Amino acid sequence: MRPSSRPPRRVSTALVLLATLAGPPTALAQFRPPPATEAQRLAEQGDQVLVSANAALAKGDKKEAEEKFRKALQLFEQALGEDPRSVASAAGLGAAANALQDFQRTVARVQPVFAQNPEDLTLAYPLGTAYFKLRRFAEAVPVLEKVAAADQPDHLIVHYYLASYYLYAQDGNRAVTRLQRYLTLRPEKLAGNDFQIHELLGKAHLLRRDAPAARAAFEKSQAGRPESAPAQIGLASVLELEGRVPESRALLERLVTKFPQVPEPKEKLARQYLAAGDVPRAETQALALVKVSDTPAAHLLLGDVRLAQKQPAQAEAEYRKVLALQPGLLMGQIAVGKALQAQSRHEEAIQFLESAVKAGGGSLELWATLGSVNRRAGRFQRAVEVHRRVVEMAPRQALGWNLLGADHFATGQWDQAIEDYGSALQVEPNNANAKQWLARALAHRARDRAGTQRLDDAVRDLRRAYDLDRSVPMGRRLGAALLDARQFAEARKVLEGTVTLPGATWREHLLLGYARLGGGDAQAALAAFTQAGEATQEPDQRAEASAGAALAEVELGQVDAAVQRLTDAGPSKTAAKVAEANLPRVLVRRALSKLEAGDAAAANRDLDAVDRLGTGKRTDLAKLATFARALTRAEEGRFAEASAGIKRALTPVPEWAWPNSRALADAWVLYRQGKVAPSRKLLTAAQKKPMPGQPRWTGALTGALLRREAALAYASGNMKASEKALKAALATSPDDAQVQHNLACVEWRQGSTAGALAAWKRLENSVPVAALNLGIDAQERRHEPAEAVEAWRRYLASGAGARAAQVREWKDRLQGLYGLGDAQGAAQSGATAEETP
User: Fold this and answer.
1) What is the pTM of this model?
2) Alpha-carbon distance 709 to 186, whole Å?
3) Handedness of CA 130, 133, 138, 144 (dihedral sign)
4) What is the tens place of the pLDDT at every residue in 82-122?
5) Which CATH number fits the domain 688-817, given the four candidates 3.40.50.700, 2.40.37.10, 3.40.47.10, 1.25.40.10?
6) CATH for 38-275?
7) CB within 10 Å: which end of the chain, N or C, has fewer?
């Protein structure tokens, strides 16, 4: 057989148990617990003294309690001296030392034992408490969280400690968890102090930006007690969170009066005044706060007021007082750095903040401020290094990315800045600072891209910027870029939205006018330009708006008004450039309009003005002016000059002309010469490939050629040819009263007097010469002088008669011969056909 492998200790234990069960009763007396060690004996004595100390403390005898705590501490120290690894001795020492507020001793003596027993809560509780009291939070929190997880009633205060820390660390969610757990575990006899816990809960909910929960907590804290300043201050914070700042301020102003010695309402009210830009009132409250509370918070507030008053030296003095009262206070160190920077003492600020960092400052704000001061000092590389550290410390916050974006923005590294702000929005999609500065970085990059003719890329950047920042400046930039890209419809949409935003100025209305003008809506463009002019009192700006209005008026056919505006452009250099660029074009356009109305002299005056102004390097405009001049020469009967001018203007064919413009213009000149056949030949050839908009014009020229052919035939006595041409003209324009009138003249000459008379009577109101012909018929054919005189009187009364002087002579003669008036002579016979140019 093989010997048993059972461990010796287990064998001995079994033998002892067997002997105990089998032996006689007297055998039990033979087994005694081993004698206590010296360490155990001292620890037991220490526990007894500790119980007595707590009993004395409960009775209110603080002196006796302190004496006993010191005796217990001495005993536990001796016990640990005998056995440095004793858990019971270390736990007792921690309890006694903490009661005497000797937290350094607790850490020094308990921590080594806890390192060997990390799961022992009797060690974790006093050690975590000591760390917390020493404000060594990085070490305290993990230990206290371990104690809190056990949920033991004896350790209730740990939940309170942790909640206080999380409030300090601005972690509202964890603070709420601990405070709610405290309320669950606390014994009924402590319920009277719940108001304090509800007050802290309200502050935690404020950090979570949960206004309803915060209000409920503060109201519970206030319930059943006289008005409490902390609870009322909390309710003021709730009002501020809800956006009801005036109500919050009114409540704080009441609290300042009701609780004049309480510092918190003064501090919070002063902060609200500062945020609203009311620095004098903020100063009043800050000075009052310093009088009632000479604390770091009071001097920090007063320093902030001095900084807002642009008094950085005085602000620095206040911030130095903060550090004198509480050396190493993080907010004070940051504030001193900002004050030094505000005095342009950048190197001092950097050295100060660097020292704070080396001294163990692990605050995000401290590192952020250090980087920002380096950036303002022009030490951009160091700023980037420091702010990258901020990103590493808080990778899920936008702060570090925003600061890196600012560093790259300051050096014009737009691509990198855009990437940084984009990263900030990835971790915090609604971060307002990242949105604003990303939009600005995009706008700057768009400007650079537009400068290198990358207009599509620029527009793309600005669209993204406008989506992020729906502001007037961004809308203006995007609208201007779209105008440059000739995307008038989108520019109009963007600018019509921009002019409705708060802060819109005359310039946005001006750009909107150009967008509408580019899109072909001249009437709406004129309205926008008019509104731009009304939105400013500056002469230069009004001149720019007037120049834009002139361009809209041109498109509306109000050319005379446009010429007047552009001629008197005003003091603006921009308006002068617009006038210089457009007045020659507008004058040429008006010259063409005058030609269309048959006023060649006025057209020549406008073209003479164009010659004086010059067309610069605009070859197409010069050719258009030459073309218009050629047409005036045709109207003046200088046909050779007209043909030569047309050839110069249309060879080679400019952009504004059609491929068949030369044929159409030559046809017009031949028409004016009376050369109907060659004009029609050219016109027929040009009509084989008509361009958009030409059919109406070629139809009008065809009708004019037919009327000219009819007039020439009529003058030569060829009534049949005249009749044929007029009927063809009437077929193309059935409602043309002039053609109807002239056809009636042909009929009269051919003896069809009844139809001719009927037509003339019908047309008399629209064709004044019809009354002249009615008078001729009455005098010559029917011998009715009175009727003739009456018809001629109507002709003269129309004021549109080209033969008014001659007709007046005829009328006077008939009146004299027949006693109808003074005798002047007899009338000339023959119906008159009105020719049309």
Assistant:
1) 0.59
2) 117
3) positive
4) 889 898 989 999 999 999 999 999 999 999 999 999 999 99
5) 1.25.40.10
6) 1.25.40.10
7) N
